[in-house]
Design a protein that fits this description.
alpha/beta; 9-stranded mixed beta sheet; single chain; binds iron/sulfur cluster; 9 strands; binds S-adenosylmethionine
């Protein structure tokens, strides 16, 4: 379904969407003045049993970045539970590969005791029935597993033998009773025409949901002008068209399966609500924070590490959140370049932060759809 009009244009039929988009934006903008922590990433390790070609964290078997000990992690989480409303905080355990941490179950169990909900983002290769059952026993209710293509295309970036294991992990998680089993696909030119097959594979394996994302120029791809990993505007439109169509068809069919696009920027009034539910823009530092592998505290693990605002080993996490996060809440520096005269500034406020820093020439999602 090709939209003949530019992504930024508005017609009379777009009015209801526009009202919602503006209402969502107003709610997000209030958070700049009154931040409200509800989403916490824990970058559990930067080690990984894989070394994917596109890895935005440049992970491999060993890492020089020190890791928090179990006691340090639990101690930091305790202070967070004391200083915030733990029941409203969702913790996403990411990496590296979280399943390489032998204390993963201890930490997940602790999160549950504190009243926080949790998920892990994993490559799935180390998740068997036992691991899945243990995670459920510890109270984890969501799991996101990366599936980057059909077998050949997944293994082209993730390595031989990884596809079968990742798909099996979706099934094991579902069988173990994980409440939300999500597949995540990094879309690149090579797998763009295979989305139907990928959808079939992940649904057959038991996924409840499927999130499609694009690849940022971070980590191993930092500053790379890699045409194999980057979608040009017609390809971005093809991806968004696919998601929009499938969301509509799935809605009509009454199936509970959920598909959504994920990026930190504004997609335009027509696209924004057609490819994802509600406000999917960047909340870094507004309701999202991260504990990095070594205890540094940042807004989002995808930001350059120089953006960390202190260490939870030296200061209370809540002090850093309250007094040092100004850098994430001041958007004045973002009203420059393409954003300087943008009529959508009030809705968007300069795009997704990590995307802006990773690819300063092409972070605007209105521009990424044009041409
Ligand atoms: C860094 S990984 C960590 C979790 C786990 N090791 C995995 O691969 O799922 C978290 C997510 O980021 C995605 N990712 C990796 N490199 C990326 C990049 N350059 N741009 C966008 N997403 C990326 C992965 O595919 C995965 O879904
Ligand atoms: S994307 Fe995930 S699985 Fe692949 S190297 Fe990075 S951390 Fe490991
Ligand atoms: S130009 Fe800037 S403010 Fe406008 S939509 Fe693009 S990223 Fe957002």
């Amino acid at each position: 379904m090709h939209h003949p009009k530019p992504a930024s244009s508005v017609g009379i039929l777009d009015f209801p969407a526009l009202v919602r988009v503006r209402r969502d934006a107003a709610r997000r903008h209030r958070l700049f003045q009154a931040p409200d922590l509800t989403y916490l990433f824990w970058e559990s390790t930067l080690r990984c049993n894989l070394a994917c070609k596109h890895c935005g964290s440049s992970c491999e078997a060993r890492s020089d970045v020190p890791e928090l000990t179990t006691d340090q992690v639990l101690g930091i989480l305790d202070t967070i539970a004391q200083d915030f409303d733990a029941k409203r905080i969702f913790v996403s355990v990411t990496g590296g590969e979280p399943l390489l941490r032998h204390d993963l179950y201890t930490v997940i169990e602790h999160l549950s005791k504190l009243g926080m909900r949790s998920c892990i983002v994993t490559n799935g290769t180390l998740l068997g029935a036992c691991q899945a059952a243990r995670l459920v026993d510890c109270g984890m209710d969501t799991i996101s597993i990366s599936i980057d293509g059909t077998r050949e295309l997944h293994e082209e970036v993730r390595g031989k033998g990884t596809y079968r294991k990742a798909l099996a992990a979706l099934s094991r998680a579902r069988e173990a009773g994980v409440q939300l089993v999500e597949a995540i696909t990094c879309v690149r030119p090579a797998n763009l025409d295979k989305l139907e097959q990928i959808e079939r594979a992940v649904t057959e394996a038991g996924a409840h949901a499927w999130r499609l994302i694009t690849i940022d120029r971070m980590g191993r791809l930092a500053r790379a002008d890699d045409t194999q990993m980057w979608l040009e505007p017609p390809q971005v439109r093809q991806l968004l068209d696919f998601i929009e169509t499938r969301r509509r068809e799935i809605d009509k069919s009454g199936s509970p399966f959920r598909i959504q696009f994920s990026c930190g920027g504004f997609l335009g009034p027509r696209r924004e609500l057609a490819v994802r539910p509600g406000d999917g823009q960047c909340f870094a530092g507004l309701c999202v924070a991260s504990i990095l592998c070594d205890g540094a505290v940042s807004a989002c693990p995808s930001l350059p590490r120089s953006w960390a605002q202190g260490s939870a080993l030296e200061e209370r996490f809540s002090t850093i959140w309250r007094t040092r996060f100004q850098a994430f809440r001041d958007t004045s520096w973002r009203k420059t370049g393409v954003c300087a005269d943008c009529s959508w500034w009030d809705v968007c406020r300069g795009g997704g932060l990590h995307e802006r820093l990773a690819q300063p020439e092409s972070f605007c999602w209105l521009e990424r759809q044009e041409g």
